[in-house]
Specification:
elongated, two-stranded antiparallel ribbon, 9-stranded antiparallel β-sheet
């Protein structure tokens, strides 16, 4: 890939009126393998897909001009989907997804200068967010068909086992051990049930 862009090392993106001056162009590369298996017929059907991949950037002015993982780099990406037709009107389906956490740049240490604490960074995107995974479940019930109207109900559970996947990780001084730094995980969604009524005419 040509003309990929990223912020140069040391860029402060907060309230930076000249942020475009800190964007550098370079090149990138992606490589890997994808596998996909699907069962179409029968009361039980579904598919399995798996991707093993690597995406890297190399930009002068970033990471000492060495290759580093792109923000979108995910080494493993796995999806499993299964559907089962219990009766003509009632079916159940589930899906499980798993992928490697995004590459991120976390501070490797800290130092004190002029009575202020500063974060110390080493390689670009040298750390990973925790791996992401969740299980979704859906129950589908068809309504009784009439000549002009059709309806159905979906009873769904998103993130069935209530996995608190990390959305953002921030760093702060520990509240229990002053002088040390702790990582704080922010998650957006736990388990989310829902009911949907579909109506067509």
């Amino acid at each position: 890939m040509r003309n990929v862009t990223d912020y140069e090392d040391g860029t402060d993106i907060m309230l930076n009126e000249n942020i475009e001056a800190n964007i550098l162009p370079g090149r990138g590369r992606s490589y890997g393998a994808e596998f996909y298996v699907k069962k179409r017929d029968g009361r039980l059907n579904g598919w399995l897909s798996y991707t093993l991949a690597r995406t890297e950037n190399k930009i002068e002015g970033i990471n000492d001009f060495n290759w580093y993982p792109s923000k979108t780099d995910k080494t493993h990406n796995l999806s499993i989907v299964a559907n089962y037709q219990i009766t003509q009107r009632f079916s159940i389906s589930s899906s499980w997804v798993y992928y490697t956490g995004n590459a991120v740049t976390f501070p490797s240490g800290k130092y004190i200068y002029d009575s202020q604490v500063w974060a110390y960074y080493t390689e670009r995107n040298g750390y990973r967010m925790p791996d992401y995974h969740r299980l979704d479940l859906n129950f589908h019930l068809k309504g009784k068909e009439k000549s002009r109207f059709k309806s159905s109900w979906d009873f769904s559970i998103y993130n069935l086992y209530n996995r608190h996947n990390a959305y953002i990780i921030n760093f702060r001084e520990s509240e229990t051990t002053p002088g040390t730094t702790e990582a704080v995980r922010l998650s957006l969604f736990g388990i989310v049930p829902s009911i949907t009524w579909n109506f067509t005419f």
